[in-house]
Amino acid sequence: MMPKTLLQVLRRRWYAAVAVLLIGFAGLGAIRSLDPVYWTQAEVSFVAPSGEPAYWIPGGDVASLVPFAALVERRVNDNSDSVDLVLSRGTLYGAGVKHGYSVTLPNTGGQWTKSFSRPVLAVQVVDSSAERVNEVLSAVIKRIQEESAALQKETDVHGALITTVTTPSSPEIIFGGGTPTDRIKGASAWLALAGAVAVAVAATVERQIVRRSVLRRGAGQ
Predict the structure, then answer these.
(1) 155 Ramachandran zone, left/alpha/beta (phi>0; psi -120 to 50)
(2) Distance (Å, whole) CA 210 – CA 94
(3) Percentage of the chain with pLDDT > 90?
(4) Which residues are within 8 A (CB) of 195 and not within 5 positions of it... i.e. 6 or more apart?
(5) pLDDT one-digit tens code per residue, 194-203
(6) Among 190, 189, 206, 201, which Cα is nearest to 17's?
(7) Assuming Cys at both sites, which of 51, 88, 188, 217 could form a disulfide with 107, CB separation 3.0 to 4.6 Å?
């Protein structure tokens, strides 16, 4: 379709094009509201009184620490804002979570059989800034340490205590997208697509109307 003919179609069927553009602008609001997303993850290992994580000790008895880790996980997650991950190997970021954290005892078994063989709690954090991610991660790790100490105190443990080690010591904070530049690019692409669809819809309406007009004239002869 020639540019001149296209302009004539748009002048006649402007209402169709405007309707599509209005829908496009409504969808643009969702793109503009996208927040930056940052996420990180770390593991908190429960350390036997010998000073080494139990699963690093050849022949060490890991079994006694796994239930302890499970109890700490339950205490940390009870009455908290933590996110319950359905997939034990999934990530908060991959699940579409933009604000939140999770504390889980990793499942080392398969899809159908669960197995908890490591005295470790996996911590994941997702938020809108690297600073916020770091703050939440530190707070969650501190909570794990506090619950671990409180649990041992409640069971009247004295002397050598189970402690924790966080790995990595300085977890990498990963950017997941949503910067102002990304929003501008996304908005530009969305508006270009909406414009193209608006033109296509206007041309389709024009063809349908012309076709019906021709059919009516043919039926009247």
Answers:
(1) alpha
(2) 49
(3) 24
(4) 21, 24
(5) 788 877 887 8
(6) 201
(7) 88
